[in-house]
Amino acid sequence: MKFALIANPEKRECVEIARRIYDKIHPEVDTHTGNALGVEGIPMERIEADIIITVGGDGTILLALQRARGMILGINMGLLGFLTEIGPDEFDLAMEKIERGEYFVDRRMRIMVKLNGKRLYDCTNEVVIHTSEIAKLRSYSVFYENELLDEFRADGLIVATPTGSTSYALSAGGPIMYPNLEDIVLTPIAPFKRYPRSFVLPAGKIKVRLKDERTNLLVLDGQYSIEIGGDDLIEIEKSEKYAEFVRFRNSPISRIRETLLG
User: 105-114: per-residue pLDDT in tens?
Assistant: First the structure.
């Protein structure tokens, strides 16, 4: 089984845990992790492994899912660690379980994003379109399966997967969705008029057009952003690729309860 290692190089404690893992199993590492460890790494886009071990928070996992290829085993060094699976002191036991085949693969829907027909990174959590200026509303037209869903003015909107429903979309008033569903939730950010909190839709094609010329930011899983304007078209739909996580316990409800409601 081929392993890779991606760590948050900006946190000393992440680098320390990554060093312990590297010395134990000598996985392939990305360039930034390699620089932090003083070993040779490769660009994250070239990593292709059976299991990618991430050391950090959910952001490290989302970055790895965007750039590299492989199942994720997340070691939580962040705050919530909603996508992570184990703590740093559980790594040795996790490796023993993997060697014995005592794990399962948790598959999560991702969404594909196109800007003016060009495919960008897939998202595991959400696509966010928001104003690039503080306290400046923007106008949006949203289409679902080529039919106008609604037009509204707001600070932006979030298009999230069920996995991402417990992230930014939740803070904007969206619902908690069971993570293994294959639906999409659309949540406006601070809409101008009284407005339904969210639309929950089957995983079809969503198109977003900006109704004015002023700039917005298109942000993918909080890891990649690009400035967009009035002539740009954003298309969002279910990706053919899934995010896959190594899990040792099959209890998404308890994960939601312990992480968000506890």
Answer: 999 999 999 9
Nearest C-alpha neighbor of 225 from the set 238, 237, 216, 213: 216
CB 67 within 8 A of CB 101: no
CATH code for the part of the protein at 3-109+242-261: 3.40.50.10330
Catalytic residue numbers read 58
Residue 193 in this model has a pLDDT that exceeds 90: no
Digit-coded pLDDT (tens) for 11-39: 999 999 999 999 999 999 999 999 999 99
What is the CATH T-level fold of the domain 111-238, as seen in this structure? Tumour Suppressor Smad4 (2.60.200)
In angstroms, rounded to a whole number, what is the distance separating the alpha carbons of residues 226 and 222? Answer: 11
pTM for the full model?
A: 0.93
Q: Where are the chain's structural domains?
A: 3-109+242-261, 111-238
